[in-house]
Design a protein that fits this description.
Elements (H helix, E strand, L loop, with lengths): L6 E3 L5 H30 L1 H24 L1 E5 L2 E5 L3 E5 L5 E9 L2 E10 L4 E11 L2 E4 L2 H14 L2 H19 L7 H8 L6 E3 L2 H11 L2
Antiparallel strand pairs: 1-2, 2-3, 3-4, 5-6, 5-9, 6-7, 7-8
Length: about 210
């Protein structure tokens, strides 16, 4: 196996933390579903317990299972996202690239959305998550591999995103605080009040161009 074919983990959060969160969701789903089913079951019998339990608990249990299994990696130029199944996008041939900012309970996550071969699927690749003046970012090797792969695509949008990640790496190498790094600043530009929003590519391009000015 060559160095370029080695699998590079792209998980923003530690796998142990993800599994612990999924376990907590599963426990909460069972407790809430059983409590609701128990109350209704007192009046409607066994069926009154089963139906509310299934409606409340089953979707949350599936969500917990999906999160517990979720694993993202880069093998060569292919991004692989495993959950209940495995979704693969060849980043080097991606036909559509966007930046997505999600805002959940005060934590903003900046992700790369990539759509392309082999099956024209879309994968979400979290690059960084910030809350307040701190946060968590993908490690240097992962960001470097993503930047190199994007640079190889050759399209204007891919080159902009590659330059953005390179600027992020340079800021980290300088020891800049989280709030001074490009991904943090870009995520902060997104309007508040929306859970998820794509950033305008032209606005991203202007932001990246200003980094070099």
């Amino acid at each position: 196996m060559s160095a370029t074919e080695e699998s590079v983990p792209l998980n923003l959060l530690d796998r142990s933390l993800i599994r612990a969160r999924a376990r907590n969701v599963a426990i909460a789903a069972v407790i809430v579903g059983a409590a609701l089913g128990g109350v209704i079951g007192l009046f409607a019998g066994p069926l009154g317990f089963v139906v509310p339990f299934a409606v409340v608990a089953v979707p949350l249990l599936l969500l917990a299972l999906t999160e517990a299994r979720r694993d993202t990696s880069l093998r060569g130029t292919e991004v692989r996202v495993r959950a209940l199944g495995t979704r693969v996008v060849d980043l080097a041939r991606a036909g559509k690239l966007d930046l997505l900012v999600t805002d959940v309970r005060g934590a903003r996550t900046i992700s790369l959305l990539a759509t392309g071969p082999p099956k024209d699927k879309t994968v979400t690749l979290a690059l960084a998550m910030y809350a307040g003046t701190g946060g968590r970012e993908l490690d240097i090797l992962a960001l470097r591999r993503i930047a190199d792969t994007l640079a190889g695509i050759g399209t204007a949008q891919a080159l902009v995103l590659s330059d953005l990640i390179v600027a992020q790496l340079r800021a980290e190498a300088r020891g800049d605080a989280a709030a001074e790094r490009p991904l943090y600043r870009l995520g902060s530009m997104a309007p508040e009040g929306r859970v998820a929003q794509k950033l305008d590519p032209s606005a991203v391009a202007r932001f990246v161009a200003a980094l070099d000015s």
